[in-house]
Amino acid sequence: MIRLKRVIVIVAALVLLVGGLSSSAMAQAKTLKIGALGPFSGSGAEWGNYLYQPIKMWADDVNAAGGITVGGVTYKFDVVTGDDKWTPSEALTQTRRMVDEEKIQFMVGPVTNGTSMAIQQFCEENKIVYFSEAVSPNLVPQFKYTFDAYIGERDIPHLFLVAKYYDPERKTIFSLAPETSSGHWYHNAFTKTANFMGYKSVGGDFYAYGASDFYPLLTKAKESKAQIIFLYAFEGEGVTVLQQARELKMDVIYLTPLPVSLPLMAKNSSWEALNGMTVITYDGTGPAWDAFAKRYSAKFGVPPQLANCLYSACEAYGQAMKNANSADKEKVMQALRAPDFKVFTQPYGKEIRFHGQELLGYNTQLGAVVDITGVRNGKYVKFPKATEEEAWDVTLKAFKK
Amino acid sequence: MTVSYVQRRFEAVFFQVLINGLFLSSIFSIVALGFAIVYGIARIMNWAHGEFYMLGAVGVWLFGRQLGLPYFAAAIISIVVVTLIAVGIERAMFKPLRGLHLPGFVASYGLSLVLQGLVFMAFSGHPRSYPKVINETLTIGAFSIGWQRVVIIPLAGLCLLSVFWFMNRTKYGIAIRAGIQDSQAARLYGLRMNTLCSTAMALASGMAAFAGVMLAPLFSIEPGMGLFVMWNAWIAVCLGGRGNLGGCLMVSAILAFMTSFIDTYLGAYYSLIAVAAFFLVGLAIRPRGLWKGMEA
Amino acid sequence: MNMIKGRYSGKIAIAIGTIFLFSLMFIVRSPYLQHVMIILLQTITLAVSYRFITLSGQWTFAHCTMMGVGAYTSAILSTKLGCPVWISWPIGIVITCFTACLLGLLIVRTRHVYFFFATWAFAYVVEITWKKLWFPFGGHDGIRNILRPGPWFNSEAHFYYLILGITLISLVVLYKLEKSRFGRTLVCINENEDLARSIGFDAFRFRMLAFIIGSAFAGLMGGFYAHYAGFIGPDDFGWMLNWFIVIYIVSGGSRTILGPIIGTLIFVPVMQILAVYRNYITIAMGLYTIFIIMVAADGIEGLIWRLRHPGEVGVSRALR
């Protein structure tokens, strides 16, 4: 009988605990929460912070400016995080937690294709707009709430146009990308563009994400007599590739499509590593960008890749709220999808819009071409870019289905 | 004319792959040997061994880049610090777990998480790099390789030779070998297992830190860099047989050359599968190790 | 709960517990918490089936990978071949058994840590295969739009009752197996293999069977997860989740069938709550693992047992 009593007590305690948990979250009318879904532990753990910081910065900026007032109500913003541990199942669980318990308004993240796809259905059903950081998360037109924080396709031709201008005699390309879905995507996109623009692709390979040694791959590249290396790598690996290629005495220039944040690279390694190299990439330049980078550095450190895109995504949402004059999730989504939607972004210092309509049939990729910059003979330079129209023209033709 | 041209081209790659294989086997063998020694004497499979390698590299970055010391000073300080940390961990954590294979492994895995997490928190996950000490490149015809990479091969050889000398000619070394062979008999002869295990751990972690220090200018330094060497070291010890140091070195070399060849000729991911498959098949054929090891 | 003493109160306790579990859907209304319950139940079945494999002394690192095999099979059959779920799911289990059989043939002869690491190598190979092959596994992106088990499955509650039923049946089956002659032979082989062999038991065959049966349950859970979440990717069944299962058993204990349940019930909610301290999670997990091994290698359940039976040397089926 004593045992039975014990069991009843335990059961009662469990009931209370469970009941308590389910009523713990209270929605607050005037503070909207933004969800930051990304990996904070496990492989890729640093991406979580890269995701969280720009969003927090935007939230702080908006709150400092008095919040956003629509429909007679002033809204301030708060950021909550969900650790998806780089796995789709955990991404789904955390999204559910943030939506059901924390009652987020919209979300930024996640970082990979797999995790982005895993939450599409759920976010659609719960009317949660999310800006994925994945390069091309297999968007399906009927998922209206899925947006992309940055656009991959449009910037690749830009790099090629600059290469053509500066080094027209180089014609053969070898591509190096990580063995991830974005790696494969970039490889395919680059091959298409290269073929369209008359370059010859002499090979390509994928390295294991997180690998330290690129020697074998670079040996292959050297053997194939490539004159240009198309490198899709994040900063640490990028520097290692550059160093090891120099060891191998490879005479190549680099096209890297990721806003590589050369200042960050320089901080973590050294400019000496880039001596004599030519790297064509894109990065923020100009007074607006510098001001943004300075503010960001004061708060968090040198802005990492894609910080500007994520900040702009939040700005886009804020603008959409103003356009719709409401915080209603569905109305804001429709405002975002309006054909003439434009938003002024601080990092770029100009208005940008969504892209993708002509290319993919749906307008959900937010992005701006920043300047083509890079390193030329060891010096950080800004390359005069081809006009945007020219780049766009090439993109449409190259990627036309 | 064309045949010899093709031949020369092929040889260049082949030679490159060969040298890279030698380079990798130097690294793998240093780390694997230390791991094998600790496993042999304390019967603990220390997954955190890769973290000692990582800490060596992080240490040289910390003392060299952040505090501005010259490379060699930073390297020595880093090795010493890592050794002290490792011996401390051994005394605190591994002593009660000696002889318990699986709990020792699980605890060491937890330890590796802690070490990686601490480095991540202290220095963030940004991969760092360390400038090269020797910037010249050795070029022979179509083939070139950085001196920094080549120089590791003789350095590693020196390290292995000195370990060999230690294990065969010094009192402590012979005692460790005795302990590996038969710990009970060793105890009967008055050898103190605590001292031996600590010495073995100091040696092993010193070697791992030495490898890390040597590799810092070549690879990117980040919290997860230990996995690359640890994976191979583990397979080397499993297939080499417990206590069989020569077997462990042999398997490390095999794995290194496999990795180098398959990476270059086939593709980066295939070497990982090949190594894992080699391991599985090796275990299937000889569950106790490819050579005769000492029974656990 | 000691199943031998006080046999009626034990049964009443189980009955109350079962009624409580069945009525939980009416108490808990938040869909997120319902989702957590579903995952919890699924994890409990995984943990208990893992423990079943450890009865024979084999600690695998590929349990979640086996779950993945079942999940991928069922997902591929139902999405790409249009197979109805009630057929593709069992086929998934069969394929998992087959895979376990193949793996077992390779490595069942190895012991303890070697076995553990061999299954790790296997898990690695399988994960890379899933990632590399865009057809049929979908590569890094995985498989999406996986069907629900039936058109009437449109709320968490339905899935909850499904998994609850499956879990209860699995627990009963595994418990009965453990107490049966087969289970006792497994324990015997684990305790002293040479002695068992000398009596005439074929250790290899028993170990293989234990491995296959445990993996079959993992495949079962895999099929459930695929049709519940609608989306699976190779990272869903990776090293981290494999590692978590080990931690559940180690921290809960593998003495009785309750051990893994305790470990899961403690660890999963704690991880969810601690998710706020995102940067410290890795360190916390590491420290927790070390702490458990140093203090209570036979888990919390073992700790409780030792506290209640001071001085007794019990059957410790802790890691060896």
Please, could you describe this protein's structure?
The complex is a heterotrimer of chains A (401), B (296) and C (320). Chain A has 401 residues and is of the alpha/beta class. Chain A folds into two domains: 196 residues, 3-Layer(aba) Sandwich (Rossmann fold); 160 residues, Response regulator (Rossmann fold, 3-Layer(aba) Sandwich), CATH 3.40.50. Helix content of chain A is 44%, strand content 21%. In chain A, the strands form three sheets. A seven-stranded mixed beta sheet of chain A has the order 8-7-9-10-11-15-16, with helices on one face. Chain A has a six-stranded mixed beta sheet with strand order 2-3-1-4-5-6. In chain A, α6 packs across α15, α7 crosses α15 and α12 packs across α13. In chain A, 56% of the residues are buried. With 296 residues, chain B is mostly helical. Chain B has twelve helices and two strands, in the order ααααββαααααααα. Chain B has a two-stranded antiparallel sheet. In chain B, α1 packs across α7 and α1 runs antiparallel to α11. Chain B is globular and about 60 Å long. Chain B starts with a helix and ends in an 11-residue tail after the last helix. The model of chain B has no long low-confidence stretch (mean pLDDT 85). In chain C, α2 packs across α10, α10 crosses α11 and α11 packs across α13. Chain C is an all-alpha fold. Chain C has one domain: ABC transporter involved in vitamin B12 uptake, BtuC.
